[in-house]
Amino acid sequence: VTRPRVVVIGAGFGGLRVARGLRRAPVDVLLLDAANYHLFQPLLYQVATAGLAPTDIAYPVRGALRRITNAGFRLGTVTGADLDRKVVTTAEGTEVAFDFLVVAAGARTATFGVPGADEHARGLKTLEDALRLRSHLLLRFEEAAADPGLVGEGALTTVVVGGGPTGVELAGALRELHRVLAKDFPGLPVDQARVVLVELAPHVLAPFHERLRRHAVRQLEARGVELRLGRSVAKVTPGGVVLDDGSEVVAQTVVWAAGVQAAELAAQLGFERGPGGRIVVDERLAVPGRDDVWVIGDIAAARDEQGQLLPQVAPVAMQGGLHVAAEIASQVAGTPRNAPFRYRDKGTMATIGRRAAVAQLPPGLRFRGTLGWLMWLGLHLVMLIGYRNRASVLLNWAYNYLTWERGGRLITYQGEAQDEPPDGRGPGLPPSP
Ligand SMILES: Cc1cc2nc3c(=O)[nH]c(=O)nc-3n(C[C@H](O)[C@H](O)[C@H](O)COP(=O)(O)OP(=O)(O)OC[C@H]3O[C@@H](n4cnc5c(N)ncnc54)[C@H](O)[C@@H]3O)c2cc1C
Predict the structure, then answer these.
(1) Among the atoms of ligand 1, which is closest to the Cα of residue 315?
(2) Residue 248 known to be catalytic
(3) Atom of ligand 1 nearest to the CA of 321
């Protein structure tokens, strides 16, 4: 007897949960992903700032599926689907047949058409992004060591665009990296290294309570992060950024942490799309009018009961994955649930640096400082996949904390040719919608 085949595009937070949720259902699950590893994006910034190694935050998909006996993996980039024939097509030229399709391909950086951003700013979405950023930052220090005149040209300055959790966490971590680099480069005026955080809103960390936002601002300032609040980037140039008030920040590194859009696949599949290019879904997370095609996580324009778009965060993707698994299992069993997806917000956290974080939990509980930071550490450890990764992250954090060191200060992409991606598009941002 052939069992229904569930094809899941993307082995991220959402996709893996679909496989887990279907592990006892009489179906065969096939995960397709362009990468052979699951990436823990929330800690990417720590790879970029040399605090963690890539293997700490990435985990082979085949390993993650080993105990799920009805799930398999295939490496491939999906480029389209033929819904009548019920197949997806891949860039490698193969077709994969499905009975049920779950689209969980995530998001990518969005630069909203800001001139120069696609060419000169760097994203922080992939492991490649993080490793290239790390190399780029360290190379600028090496170059300045050889030619101190480059300091005046912004070699040691990073502009972080976007004051959400990613921008705040990166800015704080960069300042901690500067402390380490001051020891590495005794001949360089590392005290002139700058991190400038630009945020359109008058505050950072929009999803957080005002008091926590203020705490984050104080912590950032105490670490020497220069804040440009209520300002937007009008233009990115090879030598820095121009803000909307005409002022300029000379910087050789610009990181774009100001927005995401749906993965390219959203447009390729031809479904109706909503804000940020996200695929429109019904309240069950199915493509409207279909019982066999489901969309979860960052690539879905799912809404709550009030009609508000759900945030593009890991818990939404994970809960969506389990929900869709239950829907598919109920259909296969001949008793369709057709239940609406209800997202349970269990809280939000962001860290600014050592012993500084903000956390808020739904009943209105708020934490900050050392307690918030310990909660943040604990949650991230629990969420990582694999004992080895957890142990390694814990060891690295303890080492970094006690020694003020960053063991991963390695330049693995050197010279402009390799510093930039091979297609010559610039540092690696996709074109904006
Ligand atoms: C720097 C950063 C920090 C973040 N911090 C937090 C945080 O602190 N807390 C939080 O909750 N969330 C955070 N997020 C958001 C969180 O990572 C996402 O919401 C979550 O990863 C979404 O899960 P997903 O399953 O939808 O997509 P993803 O986890 O992104 O997985 C998508 C997968 O699809 C694959 N894929 C894409 N296109 C194709 C294709 N065409 N064919 C095959 N495979 C494809 C990708 O390779 C990827 O493996 C952060 C994100 C970033 C970038």
Answers:
(1) 11
(2) no
(3) 25
Helix and strand element counts for the chain (H, E)? 13, 24
Helix or strand run (H / E) with residue 133: helix 127-146
The CA distance from 353 to 349, in Å, is 12
pTM: 0.94
Which amino acid residue places its CA nearest to atom 53 of ligand 1?
125
In order along its 433 residues, the chain shows pLDDT tens digits of 789 999 999 999 999 999 999 999 999 999 999 999 999 999 999 999 999 999 999 999 999 999 999 999 999 999 999 999 999 999 999 999 999 999 999 999 999 999 999 999 999 999 999 999 999 999 999 999 999 999 999 999 999 999 999 999 999 999 999 999 999 999 999 999 999 999 999 999 998 999 999 999 999 999 999 999 999 999 999 999 999 999 999 999 999 999 999 999 999 999 999 999 999 999 999 999 999 999 999 999 999 999 999 999 999 999 999 999 999 999 999 999 999 999 999 999 999 999 999 999 988 899 999 999 999 999 999 999 988 999 999 999 999 999 999 989 999 988 654 355 434 444 545 554 4
- Candidates 128, 142, 153, 169; catalytic one: 169
Alpha-carbon gap, residue 262 to 276, rounded angstroms: 6
**d(C-alpha 58, C-alpha 206), whole Å:** 28
Is residue 267 in contact with ligand 1, taking CB distance under 6 Å? Answer: no
Question: What is the 3-state composition of the chain as percent helix, strand, coil, each rounded to the nearest 5?
Answer: 35, 25, 40
Query: Would you say the CB of residue 315 lies under 6 angstroms from ligand 1?
Result: yes
Assess whether the C-beta atom of 199 lies below 6 angstroms from ligand 1. no
